[in-house]
Amino acid sequence: MVFPDLAPALGSIEWAVTGAAAARLNMPKRATRDLDVVIRAEDGPRAQERLRSAGVSYLGEPATGGSTWRPGASGGPHRAGAPLNVAVSMLSTRALWGAG
């Protein structure tokens, strides 16, 4: 599975891949149907606006917090590298980056 590059859509908002997609970097391939990313909580509204502007459809808020997105009618943000062909769960945290 090829995951989309969200960097052009999110711009200067710091984000990191987490979940099964991140685990694939350190273990055998694992089937996954979505891309989990984490952002700073204060960047949530700005990130949501950027994804909407990139043509991604908002699905709602998962129980874990954050927001869930799917490709829009046009297939998502083609300008963000690969088209968005998977659902994206955008989790937010108030924790410091690199803490621990």
Features:
100 residues; alpha+beta; Beta Polymerase, domain 2; 19% helix
Q: State the end-to-end distance.
A: 31 Å
> In CATH terms, what is the architecture?
2-Layer Sandwich
Radius of gyration: 13 Å
Structural class: alpha+beta
- Quick one: how many beta strands? 5
Which spans of ≥5 residues are poorly predicted at pLDDT below 50? 75-82
Overall spatial form: globular
Portion of residues within helices: 10-25%
**Nearest-integer average pLDDT:** 77
The percent range for strand residues is 25-35%
- Number of continuous helical runs: 3
**Sequence of strands across the biggest β-sheet:** 1-2-5-4-3
Question: CATH topology, which one?
Answer: Beta Polymerase, domain 2
What does this structure look like?
With 100 residues, this protein is α+β, with helices and mostly antiparallel strands. The protein has a single domain (7-93), classed as Beta Polymerase, domain 2. Helix content is 19%, strand content 28%. The protein contains three helices and five strands; from the N terminus they run αβαβαβββ. The protein has helices at 7-10, 19-23, 44-53, and strands at 15-18, 34-40, 56-60, 67-71, 87-93. It has a five-stranded mixed sheet with strand order 1-2-5-4-3. Strand 3 and strand 4 (67-71) form a beta hairpin. The longest helix is centred in the middle third of the chain and has 10 residues, at 44-53. It is globular, with a radius of gyration of 13 Å. It starts with 6 loop residues before the first helix and ends in a 7-residue tail after the last strand. Mean pLDDT is 77; it is low at 75-82.
